[in-house]
Amino acid sequence: MTVLSQHTSDVNTARAFAGLKARFPEWDSVVRASPKRVADAIRSGGLADQKAPRIQAILREIARREGRLSLDRLRDVDDDEVEDYLCSLPGVGPKTAACVLVFSLGRAAFPIDTHVHRVTKRLGWIPENASAEGAHAVLKHVVPADVRYELHVQLIAHGRTICKARMPLCTECPLLDLCPAGPRLLAEGLAR
Questions:
Q1: DSSP structure string for 154-175
Q2: Are 55 and 72 in contact (CB under 8 A)?
Q3: Which residues does 57 contact at the CB level (< 8 Å), separation at least 6?
Q4: Could you read off the pLDDT of 113-160 as tens digits, one per residue?
């Protein structure tokens, strides 16, 4: 599901995952299917022709390493080892690994999605030129473990409603007095 969530909305992610599970109730059947059939099942999520072979490659590698299509073993492994394992899978980066850690394993990871990246950059928590991977490297050591999940969720909500990519609503922002970017964006006419 995390691969399906890349570069699309939550609604389209859910739709694509439902399509995948309806067409292929077992992960083994996803591996055995043609990439075109998998892509057709997830088409509603966008970028299906890229995501289908990536999902299949990840599943094949998990089966090769684990002897079955299961990551249950990772429940007993520390966070850094889980992150290293996941990031070593084809097409899996820090965001996908952190999402698996948080949402599947209930761990205190801090995924950097587009909203979190934008808001933390504007707040000055990360350098202006930091990539998402660079932001992950910085913030995973700065954000306290006990607030990571809630902060992640709140930053996404803030990024969707107030601190939008285009024309953020800085005059409505409760963080304006803490935000170095807000006054500049307002002065340049790039925010309301």
A1: HHHHHHHHTS-SSS--GGG-TT
A2: no
A3: 90, 91
A4: 999 999 999 999 999 999 999 999 999 899 999 999 999 999 999 999
Q: What is the phi/psi pair of residue 181, to 5°?
A: -80, -30
Q: Dihedral of the CA atoms 160, 162, 163, 169 (nearest 10)?
A: 140
Neighbour tally for 6: CB within 10 Å: 19
Q: pLDDT tens digits, residue range 74-99? A: 999 999 999 999 999 999 999 999 99
Q: Looking at the annotation, which residues are catalytic? A: 95
Helices 148-161 and 114-122: angle between axes, nearest 10 degrees: 90
**What is the model's pLDDT at position 19?**
96
With b for 16 or more beta-carbon neighbours within 10 A and e for fewer, the 31-41 pattern comes to bebebeebbeb
